[in-house]
Amino acid sequence: xxxxxxxxxxEAFRSSVRExxxxxxxxxxxxxxxxxxxxRDIWKEAGKQGLFGxxxxxxxxxxxxxxxxxxxxxxxxIAGFNFAVSSCFGIHSDVCPPYIVDLGTQEQKERWLPGMxxxxxxxxxxxxxxxxxxxxxxxxxxxxxDGDGWVLNGSKTFIxxxxxxxxxxxxxxxxxxxxAKGITxxxxxxxxxxFSRGRKLDKVGxxxxxxxxxxxxxxxxxxxxxxxEEGLGFISMMQRLPQERVGAAVANTxxxxxxxxxxxxxxxxxKAFGQPVGSFQHNKFKMAELQTKLxxxxxxxxxxxxxxxxxxxxxxxxxxxxxxxxxVQNDVLxxxxxxxxxxxxxxxxxxxxxxxxxxxxKIWAGSNEIMKELIGRDLGL
Length: 381
Hints:
Elements: H1 8-25, H2 29-35, H3 40-48, H4 68-81, H5 83-95, H6 97-103, H7 106-118, E1 123-126, E2 142-146, E3 149-159, E4 167-173, E5 183-189, E6 195-200, E7 212-222, E8 226-227, H8 233-269, E9 271-272, E10 275-276, H9 281-309, H10 315-340, H11 350-358, H12 368-378
Parallel strand pairs: 1-4
Antiparallel strand pairs: 2-3, 3-7, 4-5, 5-8, 6-7, 9-10
Helix pairs in contact: 1-4, 4-5, 4-8, 5-8, 8-9, 8-10, 8-11, 9-10, 10-11, 10-12
């Protein structure tokens, strides 16, 4: 089915992103896997190519695109290359900038946004804690007023970009008596005394992403680094989670589609019993099912992209896109591994790494179970 969500300008941008993937990312694929990180020069080249400033106004060094469809194009092309790199870039360029653009003071915008746009400052967002994942209202990291600043204590875990981040948006409890209304956001900068990082976490997949724990031990954060009003951190996160979730859905679908296409090509080449394995009726029917699943998912995700571009995407519809695309991605890639046979279980084959990389998509950005809870509540249940 033709996709109608994009116009000529979006497709022209797609061509430039593909060129970046071919010229900069693909030649470094094995090296990124080896060092379990995306090197700084790659971040800077991506910034130079305009991949990081789409949500950032021109006056602060960004593109000021004001059209989410450009974000979606970038997410599709990077996810088609590598799901882990897509998650790193997505957190930095798609998730974090709206917090500063929407909530930041003029001084904060001038201070941080240009570096984020050009790739000099890598950004992460620290919500998840060791004691709880999707239950953001129960976080235990605290920030206590002290003179003209705050003293931050606590820890975060599973933080994408955490190991290299120059800036971290940190959610902390500033008033224990107010529950969700007692949470505030702070910008913690690399080099602040008491701010440290754990090792790069040894994950099942997404090895290229430098995911780590973050520790805050009596970190003095000036009030100038408070992001938004005191006590409105939880609301601010809830308001911006739909963009994170539709972004996850875009990447889930694009990644699964790309690996599926590669699998179709493989089944035309690999032979068993004297004929291509793709020509066996069971495999042919299986791939017909996968193609249909992916196209139906794509249609809904495209509607969500269009709605978000018009600022009409609801949190519930974003939740539907997130959980369903994650489930479809995992179902499709599991079948792709099966179609590769024994080779599908070998790390040297891209399908095996993609299968592992995809599993976390049912957990992050709010677990699939939490997404269904949100949808169920919307049904009045």
